[in-house]
Design goal:
Strand content: 5-15%
Strand order of the largest sheet: 2-3-1-4-5
CATH architecture of the largest domain: 3-Layer(aba) Sandwich
Oligomer: single chain
Number of helices: 16
Order of helices and strands: EHEHHHEHEHHEHEHEHHHEHEHHEH
Distance between the termini: 18 Å
CATH topology of the largest domain: Rossmann fold
Radius of gyration: 26 Å
CATH class of the largest domain: Alpha Beta
Largest sheet: 5 strands, parallel
CATH superfamily of the largest domain: P-loop containing nucleotide triphosphate hydrolases
Length: about 400
């Protein structure tokens, strides 16, 4: 998720650049003024509270503002990120935003400040006043607005400078040149992010072959519980013996065995561009575990993909696989195959629904040739992450 705060004095060009950012990076635009007007228009509970405060000449408190922002973020799970225009405006609001980001398991990537001189701001706003008809675009009002901006925002800028999140742009240049400066900042931020993909699908949907191919194409570390557990079986370890017994009885391997293996894999993988997870998480508990593991390593899930294949086709594929050298212990009988499919439906489908509500899940048709399915997955990845190549 790409989260940016865009700052700049009146006349710096935030509106123009915001339009570019929202469109180019599929960000959801958050302006507290716009959100308040929307809540008031729709007469929501928060809107009514804000309206009554405004009617008496008061300022809407942070308690209401933060609830509206949180509501907006959670109601737009398919956004690639959020663009905050004019928020936070105060030092206290900077702490509020940081706490909100933590609660939502994300963070602010950077604050981009559009720097322009006071005289240039006045010149631009006076020019706008001639064409916009806005009564507040006169020099006295403009100078007061600028004075308030510099007094209130300087502590906010220092807050983000201390955190290393402050980026500045010379907004005295042309729109295209400012546009390019911002784009370079964002590309640098995107390059820091790990592309962590969770690949869901019923047994037999092709997750393994597709996951390995995606990992190779995009330079990701392929993390599949199956191969890691198979390695333990081959080594004849105590863990391997337990796993083999579970396989032979068509049972899932418990988290106490799986999680330490995944954590070890994350710790030993250095310099990777991200991870693709196949076969994990399978349960609600594992979904929380994965979020915690990634957060521990300063990362999070970037994209969730589900391969969709009809049940009868899945059974045919698994029965066919059981007759080859690629046969898994849990493929050895039709009873075990059906049990695996039931386990997925009962335990993993609810996890997918949870992710759909929180982040959005991309559904991919898993029917067709390997190349056709691979092309569909690649398209979805590149559609959301244009910075991969």
């Amino acid at each position: 998720m790409l989260n940016i705060a865009l700052f700049g004095p009146p006349g710096a060009g935030k509106g123009t650049q915001s339009e570019f950012l929202v469109k180019e990076y599929n960000l959801f635009y958050i302006s507290t003024g716009d959100l308040l007007r929307k809540e008031i228009k729709e007469q929501t509970q928060l809107g009514k509270e804000a309206q009554s405060i405004i009617a008496t000449g008061g300022l809407v408190p942070d308690e209401i503002i933060v609830q509206i922002i949180e509501k907006t973020i959670t109601n737009n799970p398919n956004a690639n990120g959020f663009l905050f225009d004019g928020f936070p405006r105060t030092y206290i609001q900077a702490y509020i935003l940081e706490g909100l980001m933590i609660k939502l398991n994300t963070s602010l990537n950077c604050l981009i400040s559009l720097n322009v001189t006071e005289e240039e701001s006045i010149r631009r706003l006076l020019h706008r006043g001639k064409t916009s008809g806005r009564s507040d675009d006169n020099e006295e009002v403009i100078r007061n607005r600028l004075k308030e901006y510099y007094e209130k925002t300087l502590p906010v800028l220092n807050f983000y400078k201390e955190k290393g999140l402050y980026k500045e742009v010379n907004s005295m240049l042309s729109i295209e040149e400012v546009h390019q400066q911002i784009k370079e900042i964002i590309q640098a931020e995107l390059s820091k992010r790990l592309l962590n993909i969770v690949l869901f699908g019923y047994p037999g949907s092709g997750r393994g072959t597709q996951g390995k191919a995606i990992a190779k194409k995009y330079g990701l570390e392929y993390i599949a519980t199956g191969p890691m557990l198979d390695e333990e079986i081959k080594k004849g370890t105590e863990i391997g013996k337990k796993v083999l017994n579970l396989y032979e009885n068509g049972l899932l391997v418990p988290d106490e065995i799986v999680v330490p293996l995944i954590e070890k894999k994350l710790e030993n993988s250095k310099g990777v561009r991200g991870y693709i997870f196949k076969g994990f998480p399978r349960t609600f508990v594992q979904s929380y575990i994965l979020d915690g593991l990634l957060k521990k390593h300063g990362s999070s899930i970037a994209k969730i993909i589900e391969l969709e294949v009809p049940i009868l086709e899945l059974i045919q594929r698994l029965v066919k696989r059981s007759q080859t050298d690629e046969c898994m212990p849990y493929d050895s009988s039709i009873e075990k195959i059906v049990q695996r499919l039931k386990d997925h439906e009962n335990k993993t489908i609810p996890v997918i629904k949870k992710y759909q509500e929180l982040h959005g899940v991309v559904k991919i048709d898993g029917m067709g040739t390997f190349e056709e399915v691979f092309e569909r997955i690649s398209f979805e990845i590149e559609n959301g992450f244009k910075n991969l190549r």
